[in-house]
Design a protein that fits this description.
The protein is an alpha/beta fold. The chain has a single domain, classed as STAS domain (Transcription Regulator spoIIAA, 2-Layer Sandwich), CATH 3.30.750. The chain is 37% helix and 33% strand. It has four helices and five strands. The N and C termini lie far apart (27 Å). The relative contact order is 0.17.
């Protein structure tokens, strides 16, 4: 369901994997929605979490911070975190911030969920 602030976040399951799909822009005005969705998934302690950013047009530093916080929680809770990103601006910010070396990045949800 589209949100008035320009970010849509959906969640579904593929076997034992939770997939969180974000579409739109993750910036100061929308990061709370993104962070809340990540928190809701982590409360349930999934085996694997895939964060699909293929529909994200802009990923600001606050979105990077939300991913870093989620990564830390995943390490603490032994949850495997995988990120799907194909959009050049998103890949660029992940590289510039060094998050690309901390996150397992895939080019499709199928590959990230081991279905591809």
């Amino acid at each position: 369901m589209p949100l008035p602030n320009g970010l849509q976040v959906d969640r579904d399951r593929h076997g034992s994997t939770d997939v969180l799909r974000a579409r739109g822009e993750i910036d100061l005005g929308t990061v709370d929605v993104f962070h809340e969705a990540l928190d809701q998934v982590m409360v349930e302690r999934p085996t694997k979490l895939v964060v699909d950013l293929t529909g994200v047009e802009f990923l600001g530093s606050c979105g990077i911070s939300a991913l870093a916080t989620t990564r830390r929680r995943c390490v603490e809770q032994a949850v495997e975190l995988r990120v799907v990103a194909t959009n050049p601006p998103v890949l660029r910010i992940l590289a510039v911030t060094g998050m690309d070396s901390l996150l397992a990045i895939f080019n499709s949800v199928d590959a990230a969920t081991d279905r591809g």
